[in-house]
Amino acid sequence: MKIKEDHLKNLLPQVQEVFEKSNLERMNFIREEKWITYPNATKIHDRMKILLTYPKKSRMPGMLLVGETNNGKSSIIKRFKKLNEYKNEEGILEVTQIPIVIVQAPPSPDLGYFYSNILNCFAVPFRNTDKISKKEQQVKYYLGAANTKLLIIDEIHNILSGPISKQKIFMNAIKNLSNDLQISIVLVGIKDALHATNTDTQISNRFKPEFLSKWKLDNDFLSLLASIEKTLPLKKASNIATTKEIALCILDLSEGYIGEIIDLITTASEYAINNNIERINQKVLNSCGFISPSRRKNYDEIIAL
């Protein structure tokens, strides 16, 4: 009984509330998106905070956030936006003031498409058939009216699907948007995104890269595992951070990507609940049906043959 009580005390308060609920309710809780702070994310947030509060000048600084797929880029920028929303004295969100706008880059270097994506963020009327110049003016107006300080463009590597000439036009338009509005811009993408900023020396100098590296077996990784376990309403302690074999197994199967780490632990937790095991161990990790990223890639290649 004492072991169970000690385990329960180690869980977060909101996790304790669902501890005695049904299997389905506990699994749904585990599936919910949660934010877990870790050093690399804090470092990126600190850098973005500087950009958000930077005094207006003719040449605003920017940033290029680079990381592999499923390594936490989108979660980091979404969390930063949520932490920096404008609220009035009563703590109510100010919908007319949007300090941070997150927009996805178009599937090709299409400025019209890009401006439409930004306008959609403001839920304002416009015609897709409008000239690019008109959309550009609308974008500048609404970003200014909303007192936007930081524009974040996700999936910037998408523009590499178009010809170099259009890539240069697209990147120059982004640079001009920053200059005209005197706002900072953060570009986000996989390592191919480095090619997008290398179209021009001025652009590469402005968007200095910050890298999200993969996880390795160190104190930061073990701390992450300990934090994750506190969010799992399993009946028994798994000790995934203090049992070296389990930590190594998680690192190996996930290949060091934080998105894969979360997916693996989620899948393993569901397996443990469904099979009345109620804890994560090596057998559960290897039996839960999780397929590592490289194996999925090879599987796709085999299917394509």
UniProtKB/TrEMBL annotation:
Pfam family, one: TniB
Domain of life, per lineage: Bacteria
InterPro entries for this protein: P-loop_NTPase, TniB
Record protein name field: AAA family ATPase
Lineage: Bacteria, Pseudomonadati, Campylobacterota, Epsilonproteobacteria, Campylobacterales
